[in-house]
Amino acid sequence: MQSSNFLLLLLFAALMILHRCDARRSTIDGSSKLVDNGETLVSAGENFEMGFFSDDDGLNKYVGIWYYKLSPRTVVWVANWNNSIQGKRIMNEDNSVVVEDGNLKVISNGYTYFSTRLGSGSNRKVELLDTGNLVLVDESGVEMWQSFRNPTDTFLPGMKMDRSLNLIDSKNENYTFQLDQSSDKEYVIILPKQGKILWKGSAKLGKLSFGEMPRYVAYMLSNFTNKDVVDNSLESIGTFNKYRLLMNSSGEIQFYGWDKEINGWSLMWSAPNDTCDLYKYCGKFSICNSKREPVCKCLPGYKLNPPDNSKAGDFSGGCSRMSVSSCNEDNVEVLDTFLDLRSMKFKSPNKIISNNSTREDCRRFCLGNCTCQAYTYNDSVCWIWDTSLMPLQENYAGGFNISVRVSISDIEATRRNCKPCGINLIPYPLSSGPNCGDPLYYSFSCDDLAGQVSFHTSNGKYTVVNFDKDNKTFVIEAAHKESVGTCDDKGPVTGISWFNQSSPFKVINWCYNPEENLTSGPFSRGKDLILISWKPPLEPFCKTSEDCNDWPNSSCNMTKQGERRCICQTDYKWNGLILNCSSSSELGTQGSFITKLASSRNQRTLVISISVVLGVITLCSISYIIYQNTRVTRSREARDIVLGNHMEHFPRRESFGEDLITADEKRRIDVPFFSLNSILLATDNFSNAAKLGQGGFGPVYKAQKFSQASRLLC
Length: 714
Ligand SMILES: *[C@@H]1O[C@H](CO)[C@@H](O)[C@H](O)[C@H]1NC(C)=O
Ligand SMILES: *[C@@H]1O[C@H](CO)[C@@H](O)[C@H](O)[C@H]1NC(C)=O
Ligand SMILES: *[C@@H]1O[C@H](CO)[C@@H](O)[C@H](O)[C@H]1NC(C)=O
Ligand SMILES: *[C@@H]1O[C@H](CO)[C@@H](O)[C@H](O)[C@H]1NC(C)=O
Ligand SMILES: *[C@@H]1O[C@H](CO)[C@@H](O)[C@H](O)[C@H]1NC(C)=O
Ligand SMILES: *[C@@H]1O[C@H](CO)[C@@H](O)[C@H](O)[C@H]1NC(C)=O
Ligand SMILES: *[C@@H]1O[C@H](CO)[C@@H](O)[C@H](O)[C@H]1NC(C)=O
Ligand SMILES: *[C@@H]1O[C@H](CO)[C@@H](O)[C@H](O)[C@H]1NC(C)=O
Ligand SMILES: *[C@@H]1O[C@H](CO)[C@@H](O)[C@H](O)[C@H]1NC(C)=O
Ligand SMILES: *[C@@H]1O[C@H](CO)[C@@H](O)[C@H](O)[C@H]1NC(C)=O
Ligand SMILES: *[C@@H]1O[C@H](CO)[C@@H](O)[C@H](O)[C@H]1NC(C)=O
Description:
The protein contains 12 helices and 41 strands. Helix 8 (603-637) packs across helix 12. It is an enzyme of class 2 (transferase).
């Protein structure tokens, strides 16, 4: 009796399952509907499923399409995305999907939450296809409507992005992704409420195009028809078998592939991915670098436009040339030149001038034509920009060189200013060469190829990310490879400072973080930024009176210390803060060096003053003694294996002076980054020699070298 009951139960269960299987269908027509009782449509090949689902809160009901049996449920289309059915997660047979008057509708209690809104017709049916497309066809099979032409936030293979299609972030309706209406090649993310473009990009099309979007995405967007962007790379990635493009609710367009190996979605691309990716974030003739604060910067020889912008740091107006020569094709050679910039990303040039020319031809053509703003020459092709050069993006992997027109007078290297290095203006008194700036500040070098400035310390050199002339600061980057040297406000280890007392440089922030308050985003840097300040300089050194032409109201004269400097004329006093001879009446706190010497009660100044007065001989003897001390200390320290190991890695300079920066270093094939930890270990060595610093004279590069140099001098 019991066993027959059991058999009956089994039979019943089997019938139920069979019934379920029978019930599985992919179509709805006028006589059948889909009710909110757990029933779904499943495409014939079991790729996609359609039915009712609740949102995360469980308060709203929607009708949508998702991948069949894929966990987590990934919804790719929603019928009533902007008109949800209120109600708890529980099933409710009042909710249904029907084909009524020839339209697909989502209805509940007599209210229509979604309709395809076609003219009425009979014998129509909808079918969920294996592509994920839901199609409404009439009795003769003619397609009347399809979800692929009415997407929500997801683009699936088989759809085609044309001018009438857009993806909308269905959560907030803050963002849409669509084809740029003025160009069939570019795609945009738009803020529809503000009518603003957030991002614009395309696949790499021509030689000087950058490809903000991978070709496989562009290829998929064209429904695999655009021959310009044919791409087989997706097919070659065997572990992916599903793809989708999503306009997400934080404004990013994301491309996902389903990875069979990890059994999950893998984010293959997303945009915007960086502050500089944002559409026109910086204006014309400016350079964008998201690692820098400020992010936008005018090119050397260019000024912010308009100069007195009410909103500080507003770069939307871009930059323009400081002095625009009255361009005239006869004299242009003497007035204008080009800034040669490396590894830049830019908007494609508007003109190809010649195909089969030389670089020099290209340069001469651009220089000789006043409408030419910039050129780039690559593989015998000369490209020209006649229009404003839109923002450039610095240090762009796969970027190109570009030469931008500038007035010679605005960038010329003078006795006073060193030549710009790439896009960096090296402000006086900082120096990157023996014949410019102030020799005391000659701690920089320029890698012309990369357009990058390096700052030299006893431990090696560090890339300078930014100079701030007004604040007298600059930022360098150091890799944080070792956990010991993690960024710490006080510097890695207390009691050890990077520079000795006489150094004009001082670390003011070991963990400078300009991005703290910038747009958040996945901008990981993997490097520590260090903020360094420099002291105002004394009167500039000079050899001849011409050297002082850059310093009005001064003349080249011998100081009491036997140095030739541009000494301010009577009634003027040197002001190191504004780098000028100020008339006595407007003199600020920063008096002339000589005046200071006489009047200062400041102890440190006094120490400096005394040592200067004592002159080179005293200095030399002190140096020599300390050098000897240092050697003793160093040999003691050499026993410290850790320090010994670290010291091995630090480049040493064996000579001093003009060849401080060797040709080899200028080439800078591979700049090593040093962790704060190693800097520390090394600066220990440096700080032992710091006693030297009280001389108030002498270079800052390397204590050890300083002593050697002093020895040489004596
Ligand atoms: C929802 O969006 C569709 C298509 O954009 C629109 O036609 C419809 O009026 C919207 N419904 C509501 C309730 O906003
Ligand atoms: C995309 O291409 C497929 C295959 O060629 C075609 O059947 C389909 O209709 C196309 N989709 C659209 C929206 O044009
Ligand atoms: C996006 O939408 C939400 C809700 O509508 C709103 O609060 C938010 O400010 C919007 N964000 C943007 C960037 O427009
Ligand atoms: C949108 O995409 C970005 C980048 O992929 C991601 O960081 C962010 O969390 C996403 N937002 C949402 C709401 O999923
Ligand atoms: C963001 O950009 C960086 C550098 O351009 C790239 O390495 C990274 O893969 C990008 N991330 C995504 C999700 O596209
Ligand atoms: C330059 O000329 C060569 C040969 O005439 C041609 O193959 C190439 O496509 C041209 N390049 C451009 C950018 O016009
Ligand atoms: C300079 O360029 C403009 C625009 O490309 C062109 O119309 C003009 O003929 C050029 N002038 C010379 C002297 O080549
Ligand atoms: C010229 O273009 C190629 C790639 O198209 C690039 O690798 C090369 O660096 C470019 N040369 C210059 C000088 O920009
Ligand atoms: C640097 O200068 C800017 C104005 O030019 C000022 O707002 C900022 O506070 C200064 N920063 C420091 C660290 O002095
Ligand atoms: C960033 O913002 C916070 C508060 O919004 C402020 O306390 C902090 O000083 C800011 N940091 C910088 C570097 O401006
Ligand atoms: C140079 O200094 C001497 C004495 O200090 C002074 O008499 C002379 O006028 C100075 N020369 C110039 C050109 O200022």
